[in-house]
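so my prof wants the structure for this chain in the tokens format not the other one, which i didnt know existed until like an hour ago. anyway here's the sequence
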Amino acid sequence: MAKIVEHGTWSLAPEDEARHEPGPELLWNESYYFDFAAPDGSLAGYVRLGLYPNWDRAWYRAALVGPGRPLVIVADNHAPLPEPGSADVRAPNYTATQKITEPFGPAFVNLDGTASVLTDPAAAYGDLTGAETTRLAFDLRWDTVSGVYPYKDIPRYEIPCTVSGTVTVGGETIAIDAHGERDHSWGERDWWKVSWLWTSGRLDDGTFVHGMQANIGFPIPWPCFTVPPGGEIGHRAGFSARTDFGPADLPTGSDLRFPGAPTTLTPVAFAPVAITSPDGRPAHFVRALCRFEAADGRTGHGWTEWHQPPEWRDHGWSHLAEENP
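here's what i got, hopefully its the right format
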């Protein structure tokens, strides 16, 4: 079993890879993410399955992006819940399955369905009825690199990975030999309350990086991890970020402060979605393939997300901590 970095107030167990008994909250959520990016940034994709048993629905999203490519996306906020004990979704226009064959080990993700094709990614915020469509299929495997990173105080963990398999879009089948990350979390999550930045990438020397900052109105040293080439995953503290936004509130770039390694990132291709609360409040969830540029000259690619709930501009996106040693 992969090494687990223990540094918090709860202990991660092998059975946590499976689905969990839901709590009583309406917005109790169980979420699985799988993403990948080619080392040269030419192609990237992700899958998210979000389960809302007390809201009687699932969210299923799958996206494929790349420079010069339109966004190809499945964005279903009213997907049927999987059967108990399963993480498979069967909807009228797509079938999606996922299997983790051993705790914290290989994960297999498959999708075959009809996706929207959007030359303007911001169109994903609107009604996609009538949009151009194409076949999108994933047959992909995530293999753990180095270990598992549990968050400090909440039931959530991240796993840096290599990713292999094939992606089919339209009549084109593409072999994938990439890097990425998968994560799993569960518990109440109110998407219409707090904004955040989440980022994960791999630099050209083989280093994996990951950081997360919730925008709570003032800066604190948020946790992060790095995996050096051939080394082990390690917990670090002191991450912060600052972001600039442009047209359609899409980010134009972020300054990241990993401890001892200031990094800038630039969005290369966007895959946003819109989400609406049970009482009708809208939020925009922006994800993008990004280019990472570390101050020491290393570069790389990965995924970053900027969540924009109501009044998100008041949440302190300009905070950037002083450089950490």
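also thought this was worth mentioning. The chain has a mean pLDDT of 94.
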